[in-house]
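Quick one:
INPUT:
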């Protein structure tokens, strides 16, 4: 399956503006993990060392997202393996677009209609917390990476909604890249927060910018839904094909 650039772009934008949501939900976790990078009684980590710790934790978080994408991508592929059902694949692509639209509406301040997805995360999070406590103090780079990867499985409705998008791609590569793009988008907000500065996050929280990026996610979702029809327009065929879009399945 070609790489779906529309979905990847929407995932990146979701992570970028959704990072403000992460600031509300994960801000305390981020600062707590940063503090956990030193042993009790040690002086606070500052300067370049603090930045390196913040980067390791957040890169680990992106790795955690990517692992989740790979797992659901493999799971989705196994479910449809051996099935020659073009219309099923078409329906799954529509599902990707519809979930992106719902995510975009949430970013605009609408109701969270995908909150139930996070219940799976809430079920497994206590076990992951126990594993995380075994890594404290996270005074080594590898510990910070692993701790960050566990952080990526925090039962956050937004990240688990994107995991649903990744599942519906039924392709391990696209699913992994989708979650990696989402995680990369959040770095712009979460690295400064983990490092100890939320000034950039406050700028991203400006209503006009938030609405603009949310609208772009909705546009990407809509294009994903309607692309199988639009790809038949000669002027759009080459562009949409390059973005990973497919034609309608045969009748």
């Amino acid at each position: 399956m070609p790489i779906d650039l529309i979905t990847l772009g929407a995932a990146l934008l979701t992570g970028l503006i959704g990072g403000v949501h992460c600031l509300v939900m994960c801000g305390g976790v981020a600062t707590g993990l940063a503090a956990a990078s030193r042993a009790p009684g040690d002086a606070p980590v500052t300067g370049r060392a603090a930045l390196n710790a913040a980067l390791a934790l957040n890169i680990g978080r992106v790795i955690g997202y990517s692992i989740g994408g790979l797992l659901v991508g493999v799971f989705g592929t196994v479910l449809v393996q051996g099935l020659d059902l073009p219309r099923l694949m078409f329906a799954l692509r529509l599902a990707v677009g519809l979930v992106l639209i719902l995510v975009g509406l949430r970013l605009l301040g609408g109701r969270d209609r995908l909150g139930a997805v996070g219940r799976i995360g809430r079920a497994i999070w206590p076990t992951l917390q126990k594993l995380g406590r075994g890594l404290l103090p996270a005074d080594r780079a590898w510990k910070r990476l692993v701790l960050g990867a566990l952080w990526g499985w925090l039962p956050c409705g937004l990240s688990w909604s994107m995991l649903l998008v990744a599942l519906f791609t039924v392709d391990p590569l696209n699913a992994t890249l989708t979650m990696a793009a989402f995680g990369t988008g959040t770095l712009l907000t979460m690295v400064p927060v983990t490092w100890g500065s939320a000034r950039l996050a406050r700028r991203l929280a400006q209503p006009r910018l938030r609405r603009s990026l949310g609208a772009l996610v909705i546009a990407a979702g809509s294009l994903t839904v309607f692309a199988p029809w639009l790809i038949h327009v000669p002027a759009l065929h080459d562009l949409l094909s390059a973005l990973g879009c497919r034609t309608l399945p045969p009748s």
